[in-house]
Amino acid sequence: MRLYRSHVLVGMDTFTLLAGARKVKEHLIRQIEKRGLSDEIKVLETGSLGITNRGVVLLIYPEGCYYVNVKPEDVPEIVEEHLLKGRTVQRLLFKGELERKAVALPESPLDVRRQSRVVLQNCGVIDPENIDEYIGRGGYEALERALFQMKPQEVIEQVKRSGLVGRGGAGFPTGLKWEISAKVASEEKYIICNADEGEPGTFKDRVIMEGDPHRVIEGMLLAGYAVGANKGFIYIRGEYALSIQRMEKAIKQAYEYNLLGSNILETNFSFDLEMRKGAGAYVCGEETALIESLEGKRGEPRNKPPYPGTCGLWGKPTVVNNVETLANIPSIIVKGADWFRSLGTKETPGTKLYTILGHVVNQGVIEVETGITLRKIIFDYGGGMKNGREFKAALVGGAAGCFLGKDMLDVKMDYTTLKSYKAVLGSGAVLVMDTSTCIVDMLRCILDFFKRESCGKCVPCRMGTDRLYRLIVDISSGKGTKDHPKLMLELAQMMNKASFCPLGQSVLLPLSSAFKYFEDEVMEHILDKRCPAGVCKMGEK
Amino acid sequence: MVQNLANSKLKERREKILRRYPPKRDSLLYILHDLQDLNPQNYLTSEDVKAVSEYLGISVGEVESVISFYSMFSRKPRGRYVIRFCSSPTCHLLEGPRVLEELKKLLGIEVGQTTGDGLFTLEMTSCLGACGVAPAMMINDEIYGNLTPFKVKEIIESYRKKGK
Amino acid sequence: MVSLTIDGKPIKTKKGSTILEAALDNGIEIPHLCYHKGLSVAGACRLCLVKIKGRPGMVASCLTEVAEGMEVIAFDEEIDETRRLIVELILSEHKHDCLVCEKNGQCELQDLAYRLGIDRVRFSVEKPNEELDNSSEVILRDPNRCILCGRCVRSCAEIAVQDVLKFANRGSEMFIIAGLNQLLAETDCVFCGACVQACPTGSLTEKLARFQGRSWEFRKVRTTCPYCGVGCQIELNIKDDRIVKVYGVEEGPENKGHLCVKGRFGFDFVHHEDRLTTPLIKRNGEFEEASWDEALDLVATKFSQLKQKYGSDALAGLSSAKCTNEENYLFQKFVRVCFGTNNVDHCARLCHSSTVAGLSRAFGSGAMTNSIREFEKADVILITGSNTTENHPVIGSLLKHVARYKGVKLIVVDPREIELTGYATIWLRQRSGTDVAWINGLMNVIVNEALYDEEFIKSRTENFEEFKKVILKYTPDRVEKITGIPKRKLIEAARMYARAKKASIVFAMGITQHITGTDNVLSLANLAMLCGNVGKEGTGVNPLRGQNNVQGACDLGALPDVYPGYQKVSDPKIREKFERAWRAKLSPKEGLTVVEMMNAASEGRIKVFT
After folding, report:
1. Which residues of C touch chain A, with CB atoms under 8 Å apart?
2. Which UniProt keywords apply (chain A) (predicted)?
């Protein structure tokens, strides 16, 4: 293998591609060739480098420095100054806060070295379209170990002991989920990867699939082996074109390497994997609705019990796991349950991907040990409030999440802790809002989302989401009465008790948390017909 | 005569898509995706519905029922370019509404409508998972992010040129 | 049995029941709207929510199975409040035109609103008035009264198995769609009205009954449908001695509440203005109204005169397969005793006479060996010569239902591509008139592969060796040449039928209306006996008879060659028995069949025809 003195990694994810990453890469290769440096410097494509919203991003080793907003015309300068002469191009370096001096070894908050990247360990480091690079970094070692050194039950035990819980939002213990299906005697069992990522503010699964698709495949293989399933489906939302493309390519490569198909690695274990696209329905992120959709029907949730674990796809035992959950498995098998337990909190160990969005300096996905506080997310990794504004609230867990106010800044953000505060972690989306935000306006947006996404099967949700939306529109257009908040809570509480599935049940969360923190603001809309943040157009429908 | 030729060509293409998938119920969504993509007006016709119904052995009502459930499918003709503008919290917070207003002005239509020249249909959609570059929108299969009123103007212009 | 308590009341119920079923069976009326007996459970209205001790929150009682020792709370303040808010929401969108709604007084939504005391409706929304679907002659659809309970969708999919009505869109945009979002009359709807009967409100109603009577004004009479041999149990709703509408009786074992378009809507002939209201006597070439006395006197006199002049055998009578057993008995007795002849027959001659002849010889009785409901218990059903969905729609729906939902395998043998071929696991398409050949072909395979029921044959049949000699000649190759059925498929069908634990045969005119009709029937009987499929639940040989009482007309002797009970006229001992019972001399000569009667009449040999 050739030894290069320098590696230039070009982040290729949905966002950087939009910004022209391919062109920049082409230019880099040409320039490097022109300067006769092709033997010394390697240009690589990789997944997300963890920095979004900054145009094309480059990461150059061995210095480990990031360049952002790189345009094709900047390339000659980078090659000349940095690669040839060893001088960093200051103006393109990724900076932290505006006032901070740009440094070559960035102290920038989204610096991957300050994260505990387990799931994302390869993202931004390898070429996701090259299986050899995954293998080169220890990929498929877990599969090997499981197939040759472990019995299926041992794999389950390991995952159980690790304490891993579902990372999609529900937080159900993964090992237990696998065990339930493993225990059922059935010729046909299925593993489904839930890649329908629809929770607003969430794109962590996209990052994983675009950056390290093989990790997901390996996770599914391990699940299949543990549970006794020989068929898997990845149900991915129809809008994720690049993820679909990368996963399909990865699946193809895995088949070529006999890591999928019959007699994997010449053992008795066979596993077939197929991609399946969704068609635009948030409710299909719920596991039984997902199964209905896979079966070619309307994505309406099924009653539980029976749970998919015993009666799922076509009535067979089915394990449905989130992308991030599956991406944790290989490391757990290789490094062991104790290692996993050593990270994060006791109740929900390991790491978690958090998406930091909104009025913060640095938006993007980070992976850190569970139990991080909101303050650290916003003010450390997020780089603090944008434009120096004041923190108002954070919406944690997406639309089906919770508003958290200043008093919650120091609470540990993991499933159990938040639950005890009657809040949720959900998918780990953190939308940060400053004082220019109108909570009523945000609520209107959230309730519009639920109304649009309700499947319509049950009365409480079908009608409740519609009425809630109409009531918040009243409030935000100055037609609210003092009965409105009471009516809304009454509806949402009933929906919480009576709805068929978690979609209808969870509308109470954002509503009640918003009312809890910002009752005054809501009442000002109603009594004074005024929007303090100046967002709502009073008197308009 | 020309219409018949066009119809039979369409029928041929439709058959080809159907044969790509086994005639089982779970092929339904994929067949619908492909059939819709085949149509320059990005929608599914009654002929499509009948053909699928026959191929899969399910009633036309059942096919309609599934189509109408998913927001990516349409039974009404749409523009050549379907703009799906994100309406979810992150895009909403980061100036989405302002960009949307600009977009509406540029196109001269309201949400749910198609421009007179048949080029664009404007729809609202739920979170696209492009929150990192909010506000965002999709035009057919392409995602556009970091939208500003200016950027959106550029994008529409480029499509208008392409459309010619 | 499982023991549980509901609000402290001890209940015993079958294992596998849901809490709601257990409650309703025991007089505990847990509110519900989307649940309907006989349909799958949706759990969509959320009205039936209950609490279970030891479990958090509320669960839908329609979806939750009972467990030993379960303590259920069906009514408390919190549950009550929840139910009221749900009904309030439904009412907030509902068109409030109870004044002119047919369901006024028997509307489930009305009942609930009253029961729960909903005296104020908040959250009201002005929805645009949707147009009525007036396209069908018999079913009226009013989408404004629809509460999206889904019962019509499930009825159409599970009972009628037509799949016309479906849910469209999602969330608050949801509505019920018919076919390609068409008017009902443009779709594949067969207007059986299962949806109308299932609808809890006045969204789906009988068009002909509109404005014809209030629900409390009806006198209800249970009777049997006058149309086909299924014999559906119907409930007539009568106002002022006029039938206004018809319901299917849920307890009727044949139909379980289901009807077809004829049974449910085809009663307009009863009060048709073209019907006679008095006897008419032709005088001077014109029919004139007469009294019953006048008419009967005239007829009786004439009959006697003609009998005197031309002899008994110049008189003949045709009974009816649409009359009751009593009427048929009386009629054949009248013909035999009063006319003094055995010239009595009815329409069975023209349809299932082969069946009667064949099955009488094979089993001793010419009737369906098993009951209609037993199709649910079969594993395989062989259907031949019957376009069941068209001619016996309620049985046709049942066959579709068991094929789709109960995993029953259908083998359809028919030269035509009928609706049932779409539900068949195997469809054999034989050349017309080659039925004995393919049936023998099936039996050939079964005998060769030793798939027959040896025990049954030994203990219950005769002439197996003779039979075998003939069967062995009908090899799959030969049968393929004769019938056109590919031998591979023949073999597959034979194995499927023979290997089934319980297999049933269904047939009709496609088997009987041949010169070889009787042989066809006998062959089917052989097939059933060969595999022991007689005398067991879910098996048998089942001719689907045409009229609603053709079985009765046959059983009660409205036939020229037998007395009631299929007792031979030509047998002196039997004749003597009847002569004693009826105290009259009876003719020893077998009478004319209906076709012979017609020929005789045209030749002038029959002078009286009644």
Report:
1. 42-46, 49, 57-58, 60, 63, 78, 81-82, 85-86, 89-90, 92-93, 122-123, 125, 148, 167, 169-174
2. 4Fe-4S, Iron, Iron-sulfur, Metal-binding
Picking from B57, B69, B75, the nearest residue to C422 by CB comes out as: B57
CA dihedral A317, A319, A320, A326 (to 10 degrees): -160
Question: Last residue of some domain: C58, C75, C92?
Answer: C75
Query: Is residue A532 situated within a structural domain?
Result: no
Closest chain C residue to the Cα of B47, Cα to Cα: C180
Pick from A288-297, B9-18, C85-94: least confident: B9-18
pLDDT reported for residue A107: 36
Rounded Cα–Cα distance for residues A155 and A319 (Å): 15
Tally of domains in chain C: 5
Does the beta-carbon distance from C43 to A500 stay under 8 Å? yes
> Residue C512 is encoded by which pair of tokens?
């009987």
Residue C420 in contact with partner chain B when CB distance is under 8 A = no
Asked if residue C393 and residue C419 are part of one domain, the reply reads yes
Q: Do A203 and B94 touch (CB under 8 A)?
A: no
pLDDT of residue C39: 96
What total of structural domains would you count in chain A?
A: 4
In a domain, C103, yes or no: no
Residue C92 lies in a domain: no
Predicted confidence at residue A112, as pLDDT, reads: 59
Interface size, chain B vs chain C, as Cβ–Cβ contacts under 8 Å: 43
Measured in angstroms, the CA of C45 and the nearest CA of chain B are apart by 19
The CATH homologous superfamily of the domain defined by B81-163: Glutaredoxin (3.40.30.10)
Task: Give contacts of C167 with chain B, Cβ < 8 Å.
Answer: 65
Helix (H, G, I), strand (E, B) or coil at C17: coil
Q: Which of C20, C46, C86, C148 to substitute to test the interface with A, most A CBs within 10 Å?
A: C46
CATH number at A33 reads 3.40.30.10
pLDDT in tens, A134-162: 998 889 999 999 999 999 999 999 999 99
Q: Give helix then strand counts, H and E, for chain A.
A: 20, 13
Domain containing residue A38: 6-108
What's the pLDDT at A88? 83
- How many Å apart are CA A400 and CA A403, to the nearest integer? 10
CATH label of the domain that carries residue C468? 3.40.228.10
- Judged by CB atoms closer than 8 Å, whether chains meet at B46 and C163 is answered as no
Same domain, C387 and C534: yes
C170/A500 CB distance under 8 A: no
Whether the Cβ atoms of residue A222 and residue A99 lie closer than 8 Å to each other: no
Interface predicted TM-score (ipTM) of this complex, two decimals: 0.94
Chain C residues touching B57 at Cβ < 8 A: 422
Calpha distance A475→A479 (Å, rounded) = 5
Of C389, C384, C392, C504, nearest in space to C437 by CA: C384
C93 vs A453: CB contact, 8 Å cut-off? Answer: no
Structure tokens at C535: 């005398």
Return the structure tokens found at A378: 């916003």
pTM across the whole model: 0.90
> Does position A105 have pLDDT exceeding 50, yes or no?
no
